[in-house]
From TrEMBL, chains A, B:
Protein name in UniProt: Molybdenum cofactor synthesis domain-containing protein
Source species: Chelatococcus caeni
Residue ranges occupied by any MoaB/Mog domain in the UniProt entry: 12-172
Annotated CDD domains: cinA (cd00885)
Pfam families: FLAD1_M, MoCF_biosynth
Gene3D superfamilies xrefs: MoaB/Mog-like domain
């Protein structure tokens, strides 16, 4: 990682693909990227899913790249007619796009020259000014232009591309978290939990209900970039929960 | 379902919750709602995930409700301090919010009067003018205001609420689909597939790579609301694939 930035570093994810919106494919990338960015000190602030429609992709890319430090896109960079992400990103930036000789070289590491047909050459179409992101899985590269990182939709390839690009990103102080299992329903801890939250406005406290063996339960998650503040609030929550269970 | 609408009926989903963006919770609602809406004849056109921040929720609700026939939200309607969806939706609509006696009655079906504390009463805060959506799982209702349907984030509860509200929705002609397994790499079918797509601009053809036993393969998905058009294009794709494998 490059040196930690002063303030939080923010990001958005844009998932591109009709197949996610139709339900045919269940997205596995959002949760993976969320975990990954949290672990390296980048705050994921927004996710959008849009169809394979140029104007929708262009509008979402421009809205999100203006608002966050990084935008990660997944999907739409293969060789078929419905893969329009590279062209849409070029349009969003107002730059040209063409066959990139570096990308052709990468494709030729895996594809025999006689198999490098017109469709496969489409995977070497890269917006002008972009840097390539190596794809150790199937060679066809992703790319980065400005603060936008364009990756494949196939999870194994997306994950490899994220590993490639991560060392080049600015990161902030990592968000730390602690989870306290309440063994109580949300409605029974809400008031004392709100009192703790009000007393510690600098620390984020989330309450997440779940059911187990047919009974509702709650996980309380405390989050802070400051280890001492985290521990202070974690201890306050744990004490509150213990008090609750000790009550007659 | 009410009578089928003339044109397609469109929808967006707004997932509300810090826990999805941090990666702590993996969303299971987007894929479920996508499948569900496709099956009843509503086109899911966009998904957004935003944090538990009022101005973000208000902005997303207003952007999405203006653009699509329906907006489904998940998350943020529990009893704790971080559950701010109902207040945010009221703000988005510019209406008041208060304790709804119908919602209190629903809560009392499950909660003893002496346990109906201030926190649990928060779950009865409903924007003025909203209709309630029954919650057969844990009683605390969702609600519908205008074209916005506000549901819980816990999957079992969200699913029950979707079942409650679905019969009241307008639906369009169902999108039909057929999948052809190519047993070929995308790059080998892209050109003939594009020719079929160009010849049938009224039918959507998607190409989805996957890997199996370490080899890349492709599913081709044909989608149309017209069963005859679907079958014509499905047959054309299947014939193309057969021709490809028959080639020397």
């Amino acid at each position: 990682m490059t040196a930690a930035a002063q303030g939080p570093v923010t990001a958005a994810v844009l998932v591109i693909g009709d197949e996610i919106l139709s339900g045919r494919t269940k997205d596995k990338n959002i949760g993976y990227i969320a975990d990954y960015l949290t672990a390296i000190g980048i705050d994921l602030r927004e996710v959008r899913v849009v169809p394979d429609v140029e104007e929708e992709i262009v509008a979402a890319v421009n809205a999100l790249r203006a608002r966050y430090d990084y935008l990660f896109t997944t999907g739409g960079i293969g060789p078929t007619h419905d893969d329009i992400t590279a062209d849409s990103v070029a349009k969003a930036f107002g730059v040209g796009i063409g066959e990139d000789p570096r990308a052709i070289s990468m494709l030729l590491e895996r594809i025999r020259p006689e198999d490098l047909n017109e469709a496969r050459r489409r995977m070497a179409r890269i917006p002008h000014g972009a840097e390539l992101i190596a794809n150790p899985v199937s060679k066809a590269p992703g790319f980065r232009i400005g603060n936008v990182i364009v990756m494949a939709g196939v999870p194994a390839i997306m994950q490899a591309m994220l590993d490639e690009v991560a060392p080049t990103l600015s990161t902030g102080r990592r968000m730390l978290s602690a989870t306290i299992r309440a063994d109580a329903k949300e409605g029974d801890i809400a008031a004392p939990l709100k009192a703790i939250a009000d007393a510690h406005p600098d620390v984020s406290i989330g309450s997440y209900p779940f059911s187990e063996d047919g009974r509702f339960n709650t996980n309380i998650v405390v989050r802070s970039r400051d280890a001492e503040r985290l521990e202070a609030v974690r201890a306050a929550v744990a004490e509150m929960v213990a008090r609750l269970h000790a009550a007659p």
